[in-house]
Amino acid sequence: MRILFITSTRIGDAVLSTGLLDHLIRTYPHAKVVVACGPVAEGVFARMPGRAWTIVLTKRRFRAHWWELWRQAAGQRWDIVVDLRGSAFSWLVRAKRRYVLRGGRQPGHRLAHLGALLGLDPPPLPVAWFGPAERARAASLLPGEGLWIGLGPTANWDRKVWPAERFVALYRALTAPGAPLEGARAAVLGGPGAQERAMAAPVLAALGGEAVDLVGGLALPEVAAVLARCALFVGNDSGLMHLSAATGTPTLGLFGPSPVEAYAPAGRRTATAVAPGSPGLDSMTGLTLEMAREAAERLLAAKVAA
């Protein structure tokens, strides 16, 4: 059996699609699955069971990247084609069954849209795939038996970024004597590139030896393993936030200009802190330390979802 799964170019959307993909893998355990995604999201699927290969769609002029997909996929006969990009491509290959996500903004959470595509209600939660090598790497980066808090002070848009000094203050509040995560150390995470490094720099400078700098230096399966070791992750709306939720780590997403009703973190233990007046271009400044602290403490005190 052959399944072609066409998913996102962005990490966050790719992570959200893993629940649907995991459902297909479990339903058809002997299927060969081919994933088509953007280069940034490729690592999301690197340790996926049943993956035959990945077709990386690097964006080109005049939509030439679709010709690369055609070159690798058109000669196959597919049992199932799932197209989460709503393209016409899915109708140009031989397939017994096609599931094509309708394009455009739809009300509700992205996860619900994905589940509805296969008639799944509730929709399957995202998963994070990593293996023994990544677990060992994470254990070496975050050593010891003590607690760790993951901090994600970066995003793909600077207006989605909570002020650095509030990340630092929240970390200190949650790890102070008598606090829920007393004595925990910080793992600061972010993507590759100068922009992500610049966003994380003030937090790293303020925390100094209290934090481990993991910005831009890890493959995505390694990042997932690191997040799985954390007692809590707090981050802006980003791919890291979605990946953390997929690992099952308690995850607090901080929201301002992006629509929380569509992109809140999806997992067994998640929460959001939303700036008043959101969405709004400059709304992140309205998200106070106290609001985030209370949300984090409620999340840590809540029972694990079934």
Features:
6-stranded parallel sheet; Rossmann fold; 10 helices; 5-stranded parallel sheet; globular; alpha/beta; 11 strands; 306 residues; single chain; Glycosyltransferase family 9 protein; transferase
In summary, what is this structure?
Keywords: Glycosyltransferase, Transferase. With 306 residues, the protein is α/β, with parallel strands linked by helices.
Q: Could you give the topology of this structure?
A:
Elements: E1 2-6, H1 11-27, E2 32-37, E3 51-56, H2 65-73, E4 77-83, E5 94-100, H3 110-117, H4 132-141, E6 148-152, H5 164-175, E7 185-190, H6 194-207, E8 211-215, H7 220-228, E9 232-236, H8 239-247, E10 251-255, H9 260-263, E11 270-274, H10 289-301
Helix pairs in contact: 1-3, 1-8, 4-7, 5-6, 5-10, 7-8
Keywords: Glycosyltransferase, Transferase
GO biological process, one term: lipopolysaccharide core region biosynthetic process
Protein name: Glycosyltransferase family 9 protein
Description:
- This protein has a six-stranded parallel sheet with strand order 8-7-6-9-10-11, sandwiched between helices.
- Strand 6, helix 5 (164-175) and strand 7 (185-190) form a beta-alpha-beta unit.
- The longest helix is centred in the N-terminal third of the chain and has 17 residues, at 11-27.
- The protein folds into two domains: 2-117, Rossmann fold, CATH 3.40.50.2000; 132-301, Rossmann fold (3-Layer(aba) Sandwich), CATH 3.40.50.
- The mean pLDDT is 94.
- Helices cover 34% and strands 20% of the residues.
- The chain is α/β, with parallel strands linked by helices.
